[in-house]
Design brief:
InterPro entries: GH, Glyco_hydro_1. Helix content is 39%, strand content 16%. It has 14 helices and 18 strands. α5 runs parallel beside α7, α6 runs antiparallel to α7 and α13 packs parallel to α14. The radius of gyration is 20 Å and the shape is globular.
Length: 420
């Protein structure tokens, strides 16, 4: 049913979100990139059973004790054409989110675009996406928290640098094109949402990375990659890139006018630097410039300090997970490790607003970054795909029960931005 269902009731008073306290969150995995020249869509909502069990899933969010959910309708299923939307699933599911009193961080684009748009090389994508974001905000005016484009850096890297998803390209010009279109889409979407909801807050949810040189010959490669990892957030926040990155952008197709567009933006006061952390976020660079995963070397707290020092924004830990392991307890140990790093940052004065175990349920084929359709269940959720709670789910439940009342009395809580 296209655009025919009535909107939800009027939004609650704007002060209702003030003093939310620390944000304990989870998410419904909604990655949806394409493979094989766009012929295969990896819709994780379908593969993990959410379309059939969405009411049960939303109830589990409350059961685990989370007050916050990273969640969004699938872009490829909702945006059916320019200005044409199918809100049928979103109307039902978001009505239930609201009824349950769950605070959504709405994820509008998670690694893929509709078939009719094609991929992130399409120069029309930013404006089409911004129109969609505004339409969503008008449809659901009670929603305040957004992640317009999830993991902009990873979206560009996996699609146009590593050649894994979507356009599946490997060259620098395609990579820079993806970056400028993805970040422009995010910026225009923020502006569009603010026209509807001037007090909107944007939680970026970006992958935080670090690249270690394996030997002296690898130093220039590591230096380049450690500058490159900031590109999407630098452009998004209107921060000047370093001289080498500026040359890299212009050498590979970004015009001065396009760069100046990003420099003119002033949206930081509406933003929280959401950052994602996995055991794969640190890389070892060889003398030939090729990288491989290094495991945890510095860890979440050290790398997060780099990002916070660069942008000076409040931080939310927006994604992490770990396979449960052979003994069923690896994920629980990872949870407590991440939590300990987060608490150390808070102790040292970094304003950490929330924590997220992602996702609510197990996932499918993330061991190959969705590139192989093997149907392998990744035991990383708070619940398995039969919706039975995992060991890490019980541990997160205990963590929330113990820490929520303590953190509610402390600072670094989410506050509404001051608006005219």
């Amino acid at each position: 049913m296209l655009d025919s269902l009535p909107p939800l009731p009027a939004a609650p008073p704007l002060h209702a979100l003030a003093g939310q306290g620390f944000l304990f969150a989870t998410g419904i995995e909604n990655s949806a990139p394409t493979l094989d020249g766009g012929r295969i869509r990896r819709d994780q909502m379908a593969e993990c059973g959410h379309y059939d069990r969405w009411r049960e899933d939303l109830a589990l969010v409350r059961q685990i004790g989370c007050g916050v959910l990273r969640y969004g309708p699938q872009l490829h299923a909702t945006l059916r054409g320019p200005g044409l939307h199918d809100w049928s699933f979103a109307d039902e599911s978001f009505a239930e989110v609201r009824r349950l009193g769950i605070l959504p961080i709405v994820d509008l684009c998670h690694f893929g675009v509709p078939d009719w748009i094609g991929d992130f090389q399409n120069p029309d994508f930013p404006e089409l996406f911004a129109d969609y974001a505004e339409a969503f905000a008008r449809r659901f005016p009670w929603v305040q928290l957004y992640t317009p484009v999830n993991e902009m850096f990873i979206t560009a890297v996996f699609s146009a640098k590593y050649g894994w998803w979507n356009e599946q390209r490997h060259d620098d010009r395609s990579y820079v094109t993806a970056i400028k279109h993805i970040v422009r889409a995010n910026v225009l979407a923020m502006q569009a949402i603010l026209r509807v909801r001037p007090d909107a807050i944007f939680i970026q949810s970006e992958s935080t990375e670090h690249f270690h040189p394996e030997c002296p010959l690898a130093l220039p490669h590591a230096e380049h990659r450690n500058a490159e990892r900031f590109l999407t957030l630098d452009l998004n926040y209107g921060r000047r890139v370093c001289s080498s990155m500026y040359e890299y952008l212009l050498d590979n197709g970004m015009t001065r006018a396009e760069y100046h567009f990003f420099q003119r933006q002033d949206l930081r006061r509406h933003c929280v630097m959401g950052n994602d952390w996995y055991v794969t976020n640190e890389h070892l660079i060889g003398a030939d410039g090729h990288s491989r995963w290094a495991g945890e070397v510095f860890g979440y707290d050290t790398v997060t300090r780099d990002y916070h020092a660069r942008y000076g924004l409040p931080v939310m830990h927006t994604e992490t997970n770990m396979d449960e392991g052979l003994n069923g307890d690896e994920a629980e140990r990872w949870l407590w490790k991440q939590w300990s790093g987060l608490m150390r940052l808070r102790r040292d004065g970094v304003p950490i607003l929330g924590f997220t175990w992602y996702s609510l349920t197990d996932q499918i084929d993330w061991n190959s970054a969705l590139r192989e359709r093997a149907g392998i269940v990744n035991p990383r959720g708070l619940f398995d795909l039969n919706r039975n709670i995992r060991t890490v789910g019980r541990a997160y439940q205990r963590l929330i029960e113990g820490w929520k009342p303590v953190l509610a009395q402390q600072g670094h809580c989410l506050r509404l931005p001051v608006t005219a």
